[in-house]
Amino acid sequence: MARNSDTLPFPTSISIQSLDHSKLYNRRAQSRENLVEKEITNDSNSNQSTFVYDYEELAEWKGFDKPPKLPPRNFKNAYCDTNDLKKQTTNKTGVTGMSLDDMFCSRCREGFEPHEKIVNSRGELWHPQCFVCAQCFRPFPEGIFYEFEGRKYCEHDFHVLFAPCCGKCGEFVIGRVIKAMNANWHPGCFRCEECSGELAETGFMKCQGRALCHTCNARIKAGALGKHICHQCHGIIDDKPLRFRGEVYHPYHFNCTACGIELNADAREVRSRPGFAANEMNELYCLRCHDKMGIPICGACRRPIEERVVTALGKHWHVEHFVCAKCEKPFLGHRHYEKKGLAYCETHYHQLFGNLCFVCNQVIAGDVFTALNKAWCVHHFACAFCDQKMNQKTKFFEFDLKPACKKCYEKFPQELKRRMRRMYDLNPKKIPA
Amino acid sequence: MTVCARAMNQTPVSCIPNSRMSKAKKVIDEARENQNPELDLADKGISTFEEMPGLLNMLQITRLTLSHNKLQVVPPGLANLINLEILNLFNNHITELPISLSQMPKLRILNVGMNRLDSLPRGFGAFPVLEVLDLTYNNLSEENLPGNFFMMETLRALYLADNDFEYLPPEIGQLKNLQILVLRENDLIELPKEIGELTRLRELHIQGNRLTVLPPEIGNLDLVSNKAVFRMEFNPWVTPIGDQLQVGISHVIDYIRSETYRYLYNRHLSAKGPPPPIENDKSKKISRAR
Ligand SMILES: [Zn+2]
Ligand SMILES: [Zn+2]
Ligand SMILES: [Zn+2]
Ligand SMILES: [Zn+2]
Ligand SMILES: [Zn+2]
Ligand SMILES: [Zn+2]
Ligand SMILES: [Zn+2]
Ligand SMILES: [Zn+2]
């Protein structure tokens, strides 16, 4: 336990205080959103200080509090005799021409007898009987002394005169001192009066004359007021709490899963896996979005559909979000074509997949027969009435836009053929022969 | 000899039942041998299914064409052909269909046109995958459609031309996949506004009816693109529609989409006069033959 005499053994200005004394804290608190401001204003009418810190802030604060580390010094070397000193001053300190006549005791200002013991401390010399504690005039036990304002003290008197006593254990505090609650503390002795957790690193809250960690402070305060503590920030929930996944919170820590708005206490917890006891999948929705949950959710934007709903591909869509998979233009009520779970506009469907055969209703891969507002694959281009295969050279008659081979047409009853001719005469260009 | 007698009121055919039977039998035997899934028995003078022994056991066939024969009765056992996708019974003498047909699991195209159907069996609309239903040239009307007729949501084409409809049930709007609707030469007095819900419709034939106005909802449909056909001639249209029709279908559509027309249409409905007289003479239709 050696202490250097030329530096104060502990920094005098270190104290741990409520954070509202911290300039850094105040600067940050001001720049922060209403979240912090709200908590501060809530407490402004009481002398209990509430604070919020983050780790960055804490690190700066700790750095400031660290006492400087000092190299140990062997004080026993301070004792030597005049001959040794001569040798020392000549050889080691480089002081030349020094004689016994020039040397005198720093305390009594008398000279030294030859062979008399001399105490040398950093170039100052004493009679051994003069090298004593400025308070008790006794030699320093084991040569250990403390220096303050040019005077040297034994350890005991130095502590009595200058070192603080711990407010808890009553022992001297050497090294890091925690100044808080108008007293000094060993870091390990400054503890929460509720849970006995150390406060030196985490900061504390003053609550009716007691130093408490913020968790206990909030709990006690909430308990006294009959209020909940937020599971996230441990602050008191002054207004209505939000219950979520079995805990209570300030609602403003959350945003609506659907619309992203900051939530209030009206928010609803939605069980996303109905029937499951586990709640870790539950999600929060603002009341507005929750009310819309009964109505369909758009398959594209995942938001509720308030206006017209398009139902296609097994999903619901906003009219403007139901779009061609190729050109992404909305169908807006126009015909669309479905293929492998995707929807296409007519142009792109045919561009990508070609025509559908009227008979097999499959996309036509090879040659296409196109006639009568329809298309056929090679395999299925046939008379609609006798199923005889036809080719591009086969003559056929049109009957309600179905192809009739000549043989079939001839079998049609006379009265029908007469009527067909009447139609044909009216609009001959529409009927291919 | 009954077969021969019945054949007499049609085009003259050979009166040798044995050779005719062997004609159908030959086709069936060949198909069975070749494992041919498509069976062509059109115009074979067949009067009953008994002339086609073993047919109902040919479970592999996917298409059965029996057009231009003289079948009167379709046996319920035809539904045994569980792989059948296309059944063509066009131009026979069929007066009723067995309800079992509507249970056929793969039947996609059913042509019963030009027969003598006066009604359809109860529950007929139960077809699971029917896409094209051709009932052209029969004796059907809204009075004799089964209750579930418009439940056939898979239908993409419905042919009802040359029948006796005066009104089309509003349930037509349920056929969401319908692309083709043919109502040519019925006795239709009006169309339900629900036709406007058939958003995929690209062929609408309503010529030769007793229509005077169109529901404005038809304006919702895309019937004037180059992929669409709308036929509406030979109806006693109100003058403004008739005038637009003179210049072209697209003018009619533009007109019925206008506010002016909506006003006229509502006034027309409230001042409901007697329906126009029936003009189609159906006495010579062969579907009327008994
Ligand atoms: Zn002392
Ligand atoms: Zn202590
Ligand atoms: Zn909170
Ligand atoms: Zn919150
Ligand atoms: Zn959307
Ligand atoms: Zn597109
Ligand atoms: Zn095909
Ligand atoms: Zn033919």
From TrEMBL, chain A:
GO biological-process terms attached to the record: cell-cell adhesion; cell-cell junction organization; positive regulation of integrin-mediated signaling pathway; positive regulation of substrate adhesion-dependent cell spreading
Any one GO cellular component localisation term in the record: cell-cell junction
PROSITE patterns hit by this protein: LIM_DOMAIN_1, LIM_DOMAIN_2
Domain (LIM zinc-binding) ranges: 103-164, 166-223, 296-355
InterPro entries the record matches: LIMS1/2-like_LIM1, PINCH-1-4-like, Znf_LIM
GO terms of molecular function: metal ion binding
Alphabetized UniProt keyword annotations: LIM domain, Metal-binding, Zinc
Protein name listed in UniProt: LIM and senescent cell antigen-like-containing domain protein 1 isoform X1
Species, as recorded: Neodiprion lecontei (Redheaded pine sawfly)
KW Amino-acid biosynthesis (keyword) present: no
Automatic annotation (TrEMBL), chain B:
Record InterPro entries: Leu-rich_rpt, Leu-rich_rpt_typical-subtyp, LRR_dom_sf, LRR_domain-containing, LRR_R13L4/SHOC2-like
Keywords from the named record: Acetylation, Leucine-rich repeat, Repeat
SMART domains: LRR_TYP (SM00369)
Domain Disease resistance R13L4/SHOC-2-like LRR intervals: 126-222
Gene3D superfamilies in the cross-refs: Ribonuclease Inhibitor
Keyword Acetylation attributed: yes
One CC-aspect GO term: cytoplasm
Domain of life of the organism encoding this protein: Eukaryota
Pfam family, one: LRR_8
Gene Ontology BP term (one): signal transduction
Keyword flag Repeat: yes
TM regions (residue ranges): none
Known function: Potentially plays a role in the Ras signal transduction pathway. Capable of suppressing v-Ras transformation in vitro.
PANTHER family: PTHR48051, RAS SUPPRESSOR PROTEIN 1 (PTHR48051:SF1)
Protein name: Ras suppressor protein 1
Taxonomic placement: Eukaryota, Metazoa, Ecdysozoa, Arthropoda, Hexapoda
Gene expressing this chain: LOC107224265
